[in-house]
Write a structure and sequence with these properties.
Helix content is 49%, strand content 13%. The protein is of the alpha/beta class. It has 2 domains: 161 residues, NAD(P)-binding Rossmann-like Domain (Rossmann fold, 3-Layer(aba) Sandwich); 118 residues, N-(1-d-carboxylethyl)-l-norvaline Dehydrogenase, domain 2 (Orthogonal Bundle). A 6-stranded parallel β-sheet has the order 3-2-1-4-5-6, sandwiched between helices. A 3-stranded mixed β-sheet has the order 7-8-9. The protein starts with 17 loop residues before the first strand and ends in a 5-residue tail after the last helix.
Length: 311
């Protein structure tokens, strides 16, 4: 094992801090651009080539590999799709862990399992670096405006060093425990997200069956104690028949599946997982609230099959 570093003295986190960013998807692009706009020097890397072209300019450079990225930057932020992507980025031949460097802080902001975080944290420590899991609540709009919610897990000292960076991305940055705690908090949040989305879709369909206009129902909900920003956004999406993905339905399937594999055993969560899994084949690339289309299909099917057969 390499000599460990005193992380309390490691880095003075300011706009002079160099940041490596891995993952240029729907969230990665606005989040990394946010840091650039705040004055940080950012170097980017993406496994799929092409997206990096949007960042070519005076304020950003492009790295050839994760190993090259971590060699040149004090802090590396990772925002990718799943456990498999994390495993590849960290452990492949030119991955983060292949570089002969130490004293780095790696922040994994992806929604992944606590198990992969614990594994990567152990490997990073052997390298002489620190790992934080720091997934976010919020979507593209919040990423653009710096109003995400960050829930972090890992060592307190490392968290305090990078907190000033994370604050440029969010309205709340909170360490909730040791390694994997941030991941568990995110799975809890997204379990509720799945339950709320299916619940909204179900009550809209119920009201429609009873002759109540969807707009009237949503107006009632919005002015009641149950009204909130999320239900307003998704209610508006239903009204305008807009299912462009702010958060793709396929991603909630992944997150609910991760939650079901952990200690979180939720009857409602399991029900939501089943519904979203059934919807994924046809509506996976659409927004999470497209689950209403799946429920409507099931509703129509149940009515048809319930009708007596004429002979």
């Amino acid at each position: 094992m390499k000599n460990l570093v005193d992380f309390k003295k490691l880095i003075t986190m300011s706009t002079k801090t160099t940041i490596g960013w891995i993952g240029l998807g729907r969230m990665g692009i606005p989040m990394s651009k946010r840091l650039m706009n705040e004055g940080f020097r950012v170097m980017v890397y993406n496994r799929t080539k092409g997206k990096e072209a949007a960042f070519l300019g005076k304020t950003v450079s492009v790295s050839s590999s994760p190993a090259d990225l971590i060699t040149q930057n004090e802090v590396v932020i990772v925002m990718v799709s799943d456990d498999r992507a994390i495993q590849e980025i960290f452990t492949r031949k030119d991955g983060l862990l292949s570089a002969e460097v130490s004293g780095r802080i790696i922040i994994n902001m992806s929604t992944v399992s606590p198990d992969i975080s614990k594994k990567m944290a152990t490997l990073c420590l052997r390298q002489g670096s620190q790992y934080l899991d720091a997934p976010v609540a919020g979507s593209v709009k919040q990423a653009e405006t710096g109003t995400l919610v960050v829930m972090a897990g890992g060592e307190e000292a490392a968290f305090q060093r990078v907190k000033p960076i994370l604050e440029h991305l969010s309205k709340l940055v909170l360490r909730v425990g040791g390694t994997g705690a941030g991941n568990n908090a995110k799975l809890a949040v997204n379990t509720l997200l799945g339950i709320m989305s299916q619940g909204l879709a179900e009550v809209v369909l119920f009201a429609q069956q009873k002759g109540i206009e969807t707009e009237d129902l949503l107006n009632i909900i919005g002015n009641s104690a149950m009204g909130n920003v999320y239900l307003k956004i998704k209610g508006d999406a239903i009204l305008s028949d807009n299912f462009q993905p702010a958060f793709a339905l396929k991603h909630i399937v992944k997150d609910l599946h991760l939650a079901s594999q952990s200690v979180l055993k939720s009857p409602l969560g399991e029900t939501a997982l089943k519904t979203f899994q059934e919807a994924e084949g046809e509506f996976g690339e659409e927004d999470i609230i497209a689950v209403i289309k799946q429920l409507e299909k099931e509703q129509i099917h149940s009515v048809v099959t319930a009708q007596p057969v004429r002979v």
